[in-house]
Known about the structure:
There is one protein chain. The chain has eight helices and ten strands. By secondary structure, it is an alpha+beta fold. A four-stranded antiparallel beta sheet has the order 1-3-6-5, with no helix packed on it. It has a three-stranded mixed beta sheet with strand order 2-10-7, with no helix packed on it.
Amino acid sequence: MKKLIVLFCFLVCANAFSQILSSSVEKKTIALGEVNHIVVTINNLHNEKVSAAPKNELLPFHFEEIKDSIAQTQDVYYRRIEFAVFDEGKFTIPELEFKVGGKVLKTIPYEIDVINTAQKSDPINDIMNNKDVKLEVTDYWQLYKLYILAAIALICLIVAIIMFVKYGRKKKSSPVVATNQTLKELDSLKKKKYVETGNYRSFYVELIDISRKFITTQYRLPADVLLTDDLVDLMKKNNTISQENERVVEDVFVRGDLVKFAKTFPDQQTMEKDLADITAFVKRSSKDLEFENLRKDV
């Protein structure tokens, strides 16, 4: 009898001074996304520190922790975790470990059955009624300003492309532009003083190059690739250049070829006359083009 009393006292003292862990789960079967919670309580701490997984990291992967509340006094550790599961099936909350001093306490595992309660025939209703909101002009601007600005930018780009295609190329290749550009080049040639210094070869090389480029641009003839004889024949057959201008081009180009191959040595007066004749030819070219346009219209 004395032994039973001693054993009973020993068990009472052991329970009085040892930690007691308890846990509970609100529901074992829940719907998809339904909030459930698990509670863990440890009693008889006697001011011992409790170590466990940090907040929102205690439950395994499939359990989406919503709220993790921890409270502790000198004798009691209390932890309540709200969670939801968004996959259908059976999922297990394993043993959860809590270390109290040098002792590890574990909860029992729980199996949670997650079911889909929705049916295909169920009507879908809004959580709350739609609310009418009156928008001002500024509100519409804030909503659609990026689209409006992008549309304006696209329209401007299209207009710019059309204007360039329609007017830009014509302007750059217009007879007036070609004439003025060639006159500037002829004036630059004159300022190089080839005539005064007797450098007739350089003079005629540049004069012929300027003239060929002008004929190619102004009259749309391949003067930049044709030999002099072939160019003269093409001008006579084409009838775009007037006879007066044809004679000037033929005389100057033939003389330029002779100078290039050292078959003739023009004097200063001849060089000045050829420069003046080519300049006059460039200025008269607009009349050739006007006549050609009239002929095409007829």
